[in-house]
Design goal:
Blueprint: H1 2-20, H2 24-28, E1 33-36, H3 47-61, E2 66-69, H4 76-88, E3 93-97, H5 102-111, E4 116-120, E5 137-142, H6 144-158, E6 162-167, H7 172-191, E7 199-205, H8 213-224, E8 229-233, H9 238-248, E9 251-256, E10 266-272, H10 274-286, E11 294-298, E12 305-306, H11 319-330, E13 353-357
Parallel strand pairs: 1-2, 1-3, 3-4, 4-5, 5-11, 6-7, 6-8, 7-13, 8-9, 9-10
Antiparallel strand pairs: 10-12
Helix pairs in contact: 1-4, 3-10, 4-5, 6-7, 8-9
């Protein structure tokens, strides 16, 4: 029943968007561009939303019909059902945001060789770990450790000394955000000549991307103990951190997209170029240069990661300081850990930052 209701809802969304999006021959031949959400909603203030904004931007600028579908549940079978529904609706390119689609795309890319697939943040992989990117699929990856580094660097340069990191499920992207954050704090502390122990980072995985009372309670406890700012790389669970920060009068660093509008407690966000990368790949598709069979990595050198300085609420960290450290990243002058194991943060070489694993 749950799956049936989800499919009916998706059909309603499909026809609603078809009725108001695009025109001309596109409107007459079905939906052309589709996105399937992962665990959350299209307005999750994070990964789904950022990817959808990129698709919508291209579709509306070029009068192309488009839709999104939310799966019935969070299993590979549910994701495949939603993708199949998009294809039945006429989609010639389907965007899937997140590692949870790895197995689904591994299967459907060979079943539908005439449809193009954009898999964000992961590579198509079978249930037993075999990777394969078909010629009708592109795997879009980001250097989250660079974005996390910038967030940690900025936090310490801003003047914060008691920091926290709340990650969601410790998948590679979240792990890299976390290790980069710790290394950025260490790098800034070294530049400032701070002493060992001057900066402390509490580190925790919530093992969910949903808002929960547990995540809010943990964050509130940290704030009550003196933590000044928490980097929440946890999808929707970040809203639980924001709620705790609002109650405590403290601060949050957002993730994936610019979350400044989500809460006045958000001082900055560790960005991935979701909107820009999706827009870029769709542009390639319609230009006849779809990069099928490839991994496309968006890093600092391509402006694929960064901080939104125009909306950040820094009092001390300046644009000039940001530009200087970003230039070092883009030039490859800063070496960061690329370990993606769940305990990667415990193996970092730290001399100033004290890391507390919670």
């Amino acid at each position: 029943m749950k799956k049936l209701l989800a499919i009916l809802l998706a059909l309603v969304m499909l026809f609603a968007v078809a009725a108001c999006g695009g025109g001309g021959s596109d409107a007459d031949s079905g939906i052309k561009l589709a996105l399937v959400t992962d665990y959350g909603t299209i307005d999750d203030g994070s990964f789904n939303q950022g990817a959808w904004e990129g698709l919508v931007a291209y579709a509306t600028a070029n009068d192309i019909t488009h839709q999104y579908i939310q799966p019935a549940d969070e299993t590979t079978a549910d994701y495949i059902d939603a993708i199949e529904l998009a294809i039945e609706g006429g989609a010639e390119l389907v965007v899937t945001p997140g590692f949870m689609f790895s197995s689904a795309i591994f299967e459907v890319q060979t079943l539908h060789p005439d449809v193009k697939f954009v898999l964000l943040d992961a590579v198509p992989e079978s249930q037993d770990g075999v990777e394969h990117i078909a010629q009708n699929t592109v795997a879009v990856l980001y250097t989250e450790h660079e974005s996390g580094f910038l967030a940690g660097y900025a936090a310490v340069m801003e003047g914060y000394r008691e920091l926290g990191f709340v990650g969601g499920i410790p998948v590679p992207a979240v792990v890299l955000f976390g290790t980069g954050f710790v290394e950025g704090a260490e790098y800034a502390a070294t530049e400032l000549g701070l002493s060992p122990g001057d900066v402390t980072i509490r580190y925790h995985y919530s093992f969910t991307f949903w808002p929960t009372p547990e995540t809010q309670a943990l964050s509130a406890g940290w704030y009550n103990d003196g933590v000044e700012v928490i980097f929440a790389a946890a999808g929707g669970a970040g809203f639980s951190v924001m709620a705790a920060a609002e109650a405590a009068g403290t601060y949050v660093i957002g993730v994936d997209i610019d979350q400044a509008s989500a809460s006045p407690t958000v001082i900055t966000s560790a960005l991935k170029g979701l909107k820009a990368s999706v827009y870029s790949i769709i542009t390639d598709f319609y230009n006849g240069s779809f990069p099928g069979g490839q991994k496309k990595v968006f890093d600092a050198a391509q402006d694929g990661v960064g901080l939104p300085m125009n909306t950040s609420r820094f009092q001390n960290f300046t644009q000039a300081q940001y530009d200087a450290i970003f230039a070092k990243l883009a030039a490859g002058q800063v070496r960061l850990s690329t370990n993606i194991g769940a305990d990667a943060h415990l193996g970092l070489n730290l001399s100033i930052v004290t890391l507390i694993d919670v």
